[in-house]
Automatic annotation (TrEMBL):
<dbReference type="InterPro" id="IPR006734">
    <property type="entry name" value="PLATZ"/>
</dbReference>
<feature type="compositionally biased region" description="Low complexity">
    <location>
        <begin position="183"/>
        <end position="197"/>
    </location>
</feature>
<protein>
    <recommendedName>
        <fullName>B box-type domain-containing protein</fullName>
    </recommendedName>
</protein>
<dbReference type="Pfam" id="PF04640">
    <property type="entry name" value="PLATZ"/>
</dbReference>
<feature type="region of interest" description="Disordered">
    <location>
        <begin position="162"/>
        <end position="197"/>
    </location>
</feature>
Length: 248
């Protein structure tokens, strides 16, 4: 008797994706969007270190349905005659059926299992539809299955790093000081000019912002903020205005 369905294929069709992971409920980005073929379960990005030596398949979303990259799925099973779609410059195929009534007049091709209209020369709208067709007509999937010992995630797949720091509220050693819109005024020459320069630097130090690596600008008031009274007091210590002698 032929093979009905391998365990990984059966689980891929029944597992739920893009739901919260029960093992990482409090973590951010804990949606299950990875499928482990060796464990036959859906996992979230935080679970990947525990499955790093397993075959992993990334699951994506397209028009509210689960899809996988055609390039990855082809390593596991023959996907010929399954209609593919393009998202983010990658061809993907649907995992499950998407039933549709034959309402498109003039359509030539229809899915062999769910009557969805298709483009030529495709005959199956999803992986599930093709599997059902093969089991119905051939009673055996073994000629269409492919041996795959390793299957890794694409290089652009990001695993979140929980370092406990909120980049938008904490200062880092890699911050870059960026001048504000109001430039500092610089004077030279007399002692009066030195006082003006000192006051200008003190006043404008409150206008400095810090640009973090994340691109977020933070407001950082100066610890030595100069009050209006200090400025007025400093101004009063400047040289007095010389009085002209009265006209004779």
């Amino acid at each position: 008797m032929g093979i009905q369905k391998p365990a990984w294929l059966e689980a891929l069709y029944t597992q739920k994706f893009f739901v919260g992971c029960c093992f990482h409920e409090t973590a951010r980005k804990n949606e299950k969007n990875v499928y482990c073929l060796d464990c036959c379960i859906s996992i979230c990005p935080h679970c990947i270190p525990s499955h790093r030596f397993h075959r992993l398949l990334q699951v994506r979303r397209y028009v509210y349905h689960d899809v996988v990259r055609l390039e990855d799925l082809q390593k596991l099973i023959d996907c010929s005659n399954v209609q593919a779609y393009t998202i983010n410059s990658a061809k993907v195929v649907f995992i499950k059926k998407r039933p549709q009534n034959r309402q498109f007049k003039g359509a030539v091709n229809y899915c062999t299992s769910c009557d969805r209209s298709l483009q030529e020369p495709f005959f199956h709208c999803s992986l599930g539809c093709k599997v059902d067709f093969l089991l119905k007509h051939y009673k055996d999937l073994s000629p269409f299955l492919r041996k795959c010992n390793t299957l890794t995630l694409s290089p652009d797949f990001l695993i979140p790093q929980d370092n406990g720091d909120d980049e938008t509220t904490h200062e880092t050693s890699h911050s870059t000081i960026v001048d504000s819109d109001e430039p500092m005024s610089w004077s030279s020459g007399s002692s009066s000019g030195s006082e003006t320069m000192s006051m200008s630097m003190a006043y404008n130090s409150d206008q400095i912002v810090r640009k973090k690596r994340s691109g977020v600008y933070l407001w950082r008031p100066s610890a030595n903020k100069v009050s209006d009274e200090d400025i007025a007091s400093n101004m009063s210590r400047r040289k007095g205005i010389p009085h002209r002698s009265p006209l004779c």
